[in-house]
Amino acid sequence: MPATKLRLDKDALFETLGYEPHPGQLEVHRSTAPRRVLACGVRWGKTRAAAMEALAAALEPRDRTMGWVVAPTYDLADKVFRELVVLAAEHLRHRIISMKESERRLVLRNLGGGVSEIRGKSADNPVSLLGEGLDFVIIDEAARMKPAIWESHLTQRLLDKNGWALVISTPRGKGWFYDLFRRGQSDDPAYASWNHPSWTNPHLNRAMIDAERGRLPERVFAQEYGGQFTEGAGQVLRNVRECATGEWKEPVEGEAYYAGLDLAKVEDYTVLCILNSKREVVFVDRFHRLDWGLQVTRIRAATDRYNNARMLVDSTGAGEPIYESLEREGCNADPYPFTAKSKAALIDNLSLMVEKRQLTLPRADLWPEGIDELESFQYSVSDSGNVKSGAPSGAHDDCVIALALAALCIGPEDFGCPLLLL
Description:
Elements (H helix, E strand, L loop, with lengths): L9 H7 L6 H8 L4 E6 L5 H14 L4 E8 L2 H18 L4 E5 L4 E5 L5 E8 L13 E4 L7 H13 L4 E6 L6 H9 L6 E6 L9 H10 L2 H7 L15 H4 E3 L10 E6 L7 E7 L4 E7 L4 H14 L4 E5 L4 H10 L4 E4 L3 H16 L5 E2 L5 H9 L1 E4 L5 E4 L7 H13 L12
Parallel strand pairs: 1-7, 1-8, 2-5, 2-6, 6-7, 9-15, 10-13, 13-14
Antiparallel strand pairs: 3-4, 4-5, 10-11, 11-12, 16-17
């Protein structure tokens, strides 16, 4: 029988794969809208539903099928792609033509004898998203992705094959993902959208979720577990733009200065941030891939220029010998080793000072990478249920940590003197 006459029985496929979708997942699978948008709390089952949709599309009888799984970073794209690989290896080994996890590429023989290929892609390299037409695309953690990726890269890949998209995420404020969700709630037949809290997954323990409600900030719980589009819910630092009215300043003789130093870890940056006594950021140096000796020389030169600024140094792990080198060089430095408790205190202090507008930051056009890091710094809930603060996956928070160390070094205005929490 010709491939065009065959049709995939999705329910039968799911049964073969040992997958019994819960009612919310079933709504997504039954929808035929070309653009499906799924906004849900953590652990609802978005990843598994997306993997099943990708496999169903790949097994559809066609001469050739091409689909992508796209996320803000490769680590995030791997969530869906690894699920695909496991399912294929366990249940569809006889249909695997090639499976290269390192290349994030899975090639299957579909039910019509044609070839279907699924690739994992990262949105942090838009150039890799150029080129071929797609039959389908699945976008994971869409709320963390820049709108230009969807608007200028992915939608264009779907045009020539009339492809479909499944866009999934836990909400993060009200950006382009929210706009797509709202469109799915309208009478546009090309779009369908669903919004579910975590506890509508019948396989989750409701009592454990209720326990998290008492442990988390209300706005974080509403976003992460309630699946609500709450503006600024995961944002740790508020009023960043309101504080960003300053400019770089040269040192003033006799004035006291306070610095924070975050040292590079592998692909990160070393960042030195210096405040004056008015709590204005007057100098920032950001660099990476320099020999440690050169880094020490560069840091000492900057702190010397700002009247031997008192400095807090992240002395965790590899940072300890660098701190000791700085101390030997005569820098006015104190160590600040990171633990879960000390980092929380550091970020809480910075959050309070920014919230009260006690810091003056350089304008966004002068310090774009710093303002971007501060605004992106967020609360998140890990797969194990732990709440942490930090940069989104694949991004940096070195400027945030350096500023936080400098802010702790001088302390909030309420104290009227440098804060000594060492």
